[in-house]
Design a protein that fits this description.
This protein is mostly helical and about 160 residues long. The chain has 2 domains: about 90 residues, Phosphoenolpyruvate-binding domains (TIM Barrel, Alpha-Beta Barrel), CATH 3.20.20; about 55 residues, no CATH class. It is built from 6 helices and 5 strands; from the N terminus they run βααβαβααββα.
Length: about 160
């Protein structure tokens, strides 16, 4: 599906359709949809399109939504479909870079730049390798932050 057309830029997971087709049942821990969420996120990323997570069906349970958003972000989703406008601020919060992520990203880019100036291919921080994948992730976080700031300024 992700490669069906060059105009496909994102793919979304529909948990209700998935569970219904499997004749399955939702569980409180999300195990019944975990495999599919993983496959959507991985397949989308492998094809260079954005993975969008499913709606949160417990419409008025913002604590459960927060738990699901944390998992979605860890799996690599870029966003989540919403059913209720009250969910939007929480979804924006989780999918926007946090202050901690921004600090990490800035530090990674700086360490990489310093290592390059010293003629080193990689940097090391707290005995951990800082190589191209981490630097790419850091730059992506900074780029996303800039986009969020621009969008916020445009809507205010």
């Amino acid at each position: 599906i992700c490669k069906a057309c060059t105009r496909v830029i994102a793919v979304a997971f529909g948990c209700e359709d998935y569970v219904t087709d499997l004749k399955g049942k939702h569980d409180n821990e999300g195990q019944s949809i975990f495999f599919a969420r993983n496959m959507i996120a991985n397949g989308a990323r492998a094809c260079g399109v954005l993975p969008i997570d499913t709606v949160h069906i417990k419409v008025h349970d913002l604590d459960d939504l927060a738990r699901n958003l944390k998992v979605a972000k860890q799996l690599g989703f870029e966003g989540m479909l919403v059913l209720n406008p009250k969910e939007i601020p929480l979804v924006h919060h989780y999918f926007s870079p946090s202050e901690e992520e921004l600090a990490w990203a800035k530090e990674m880019v700086q360490l990489a730049e310093d290592a390059e100036k010293e003629g080193k291919g990689v940097a090391v921080k707290d005995n951990k390798f800082i190589g191209p994948p981490m630097v790419k992730m850091a730059k992506d976080i900074l780029k996303k932050h800039e986009m969020v700031v621009r969008r916020s300024a445009a809507t205010n």
